Amino acid sequence: MGCLKFKIKMNQTVILNILFLFLSLQLAFADAEKIFRENSKAVVFIATYDKDNKPIAMGSGFIVRADGAVVTNYHVVSDAVKIVVATSNKFMVAEGFLHADKENDLVILKIKANSLPTVKIGDIKNVNIGEKVYVIGSPEGLENTISDGILSGIREMTLNQKILQFTAPVSPGSSGGPLFNKNGEVIGIVTSLLEDSQNINFAMPINLVKNKFLSKKLMTLKDAVKENYKKYPEYWFYIGYQHDINERYQEAIEAYKQGLKIKPNYADAYNQLGIAYSKLDRQEEAIVAFKKAIKFKPDFAEAYYNLGLAYNRTSKYKESVEAYKQAIKIKPDLAEAYNGLSISYGGLSKYQEAVEAAKQAIKINPAYAEAYSILGLAYNKLGRYQEAIDAYKQAIMINPDLTLAHKFLGDVYRDLGRSQEAIEAYKQEIKIKPDYADAHLNIGVSYYLLGMYREAVEAFKQTIKIKPDYELAYFKLGRSYVGLNLLREAKESYNQAIKINPDCEIAYQGLGLLYGELGMHKEATEAFKQARRITPNDAENHYNLGVSYEGLGAYKEAIEAFKQAIKIKPDYVNAHYNLGVSYAKSGGYQEAIEAYKQVVNIEPEHYYAHYNLGFSYLQLGIYNEAIEAYKKAIGIKSDSYWAYNDLGFTYEKLNLYQEAIEAYKQSIKIKPDFAIAHLNLGLSYIAMNDKDSAADEYKILKNLNPEMADKLFNEIYK
């Protein structure tokens, strides 16, 4: 019965969810129905004709005055000799214009009428991005229809001009029609110059014409719309803009250029041209366009801002800073310019200045989530990690869907070694953007740092599923396989990274290290040669190549590789140390001594350098220096039984047998089963004529190493 009750509860929940969805849809439909019912009769169909009474164009409009004032687009009525307006019950010829604004593609027509239904007028100051909007129009000259969508953006084209972006579908013939908010108020005039504008469209704000509705002065058609709108630069400007918002940037560029042919000093068109170039990552062309915009309009704050962005994207941070400063000088409350300035200061490693600029952006706009993210980056670079975390969290609180803030938060947690918290931050990023490859990559890195290699493998596989040609993901997948000791899979991953990008240096490095672990030094050498080819000035590549040569016994080549690494990075401790090892293995003990001395100059507590220094001195018969080197090694690592053993051996060379005996005893104390020390101790006892003590060592050696025991036995009884 318990299970049955649970099922009933689940079914009730499902039913409630369905009901809620149904009610939501019903409410949305009811809103649309109400808006259509109240306003449809105030939305008109417009047709235009030439001097031969042939149709030119058609569109929509809406009545704003009961005596026949009708708003529509300039391009709908341009070049017309006759304009026919179809209301819900009659056709009327427009007698003239009350207002014409070709720059904003807007006109107010006048028809002879009285007591016509009118629309309610809203204000874009009261609209919010994300709110529901509705379009009523006369597609193809048919009956009025309504479509809905959301207000997806309010784009500031210039200092005094905004454009509304929305997602409601717009059909040919709807241009000039009204865009309504959820309250049934007109907030914009639909402007559709393309037949294939997809589901992203734009409208001119109603505020551009609402103060013209009361005009009584009538202009004739000839005076108001003298030519076809295509002959005006504004037509091509809006064509370009409509291509732009539909992500057809090359078509946008061509349209803006067409407008500039008509009006070569059209600053706004140059600015938009630069934006389109920038979106195609053609930053140098964008920079030229923004400079032209500024040339023709020196107080163009937005163009300076966009110029700063383009400089930033080409890592020209000094120029970017100057451009942002000019934008701020013209428009001191341009928060975006301060935010950009912060990013550029970061590029110049001026992190305190970056903090101040980001704070200024936030002061102007306290809800500026992106500025909090950039502030966090600057704090992070200054090592003020908690302040960085707080800034990222504030950004997320303002805008929970800001993926960048989640990423940066994850990065700072990861860098602080708080990998589990980093994973949670990256998971939030994925929740917002499931197909974001880098978020999966970052989760994989965090799992790797936690030693959770299987989870890392799965994360990197997911990254590759989303982005199959991501060589970095293959490299990191290879490293994770190494962590699982799945070396064949690791090799395949590294090779896949190289297949995608033959110049993937890190993949060659990973492959070389893998071959080295397997003792395949020849293959490792070839891999590191490729890494060196790609980045010849990377000391690490020369060092790794030297280690591989060392593994092959090619000490001459190893020495040259280590020298090259040191030339690039003079304080490279490992390169100096391995240089000493290669010299020693090839019999060059004096050169080895010089290399080890360089190591201890850079890193005085380097145990192995002191130990090998002692060994090299010993080989050259420089016993006192050898003793000092071994003592320093023991001072660094007091449990080094090898250092005590070799110290004893050096004392023997100086016939200091008592000191040798003490050193060997210390070695055995640390490692009681160290056979060599027992043998050497026995031999020192023999040198001191203490054969009984030597015999005791023989007895111990019989269990540890019979061969060494026989050798000591022969020395005792020869």
What do you see in this structure?
The chain has 32 helices and 14 strands. The protein is α+β, with helices and mostly antiparallel strands and about 725 residues long. The longest helix is centred in the N-terminal third of the chain and has 38 residues, at about 1-40.
Using brief descriptors, characterize the structure shown.
718 residues, 32 helices, 5 domains, Thrombin, subunit H, Serine Threonine Protein Phosphatase 5, Tetratricopeptide repeat, six-stranded antiparallel barrel, alpha+beta, 61% helix
Structural class: alpha+beta
User: In which range does the helix fraction lie?
Assistant: 55-70%
Structural shape: elongated
User: Radius of gyration from the CA trace?
Assistant: 40 Å
The total count of strands amounts to: 14
CATH architecture of the largest domain: Beta Barrel
What is the fold-level CATH name, i.e. the topology of the largest domain?
Thrombin, subunit H
The pLDDT mean sits at 91
Largest sheet: 7 strands, antiparallel
Q: Give the class-level CATH name of the largest domain.
A: Mainly Beta
Strand order of the largest sheet: 5-4-1-2-3-7-6
Pick out the low-confidence regions: 1-28
> What gap, in angstroms, lies between the N and C termini?
95 Å
Number of helices in the DSSP assignment: 32
Tell me the β content: 5-15%
Domain module tally: 5
